[in-house]
Design brief:
Blueprint: H1 11-27, E1 37-43, E2 48-56, H2 63-73, E3 78-84, E4 91-98, H3 105-114, E5 121-131
Parallel strand pairs: 1-5
Antiparallel strand pairs: 2-4, 2-5, 3-4
């Protein structure tokens, strides 16, 4: 298609728009990053890192809990994802054991919050690093 020179997009302007679009895609979802993550060291029998994610928006144990668990298990580095669901509670807790060399808590939070275009929200997160007393 041929455009008159007066309405042809300028290459520099087009590239700036493209960069803005990429930036918006990368940083536009930063509401996912706004969860304060508390890191705690505790004594334990084995060396393990567990994220405790307080999640709102789950309405049922079958579909909601299963979907959140499935998505967390799909993240490389997640060894275990247990969710404590209470039908009468507005906030439920996911306990996610993960390898911090492969994944971080921010990725786990983003994974949950991206399900269903923001159907679930992570209200708070605590990452507990367990280690035997001799290794602390």
């Amino acid at each position: 298609m041929h455009f008159p020179s007066s309405i042809k997009p300028h290459k520099a302007a087009a590239s700036h728009l493209w960069m803005l679009a990429i930036g918006a895609a990368l940083f536009g979802g930063c509401s996912q990053c706004e969860v304060d993550i508390v890191h705690v060291d505790r004594a334990g029998n084995n060396e393990e890192t567990v994220a405790q994610l307080a999640i709102s928006g789950m309405m049922c144990e079958i579909a909601c809990v299963s979907k959140v668990r499935k998505e967390l298990y799909n993240v490389q580095g997640v060894a275990r994802a247990d969710i404590h669901f209470d039908e009468g509670s507005k906030v439920d807790t996911a306990f996610v054991a993960f390898d911090p060399a492969l994944v971080d808590a921010e990725t786990l939070i983003a994974t949950v919050q991206e399900i269903g275009d923001g159907l679930y929200a992570v209200e708070s997160a605590e990452v507990v690093h367990y280690a035997p007393e001799s290794r602390r």
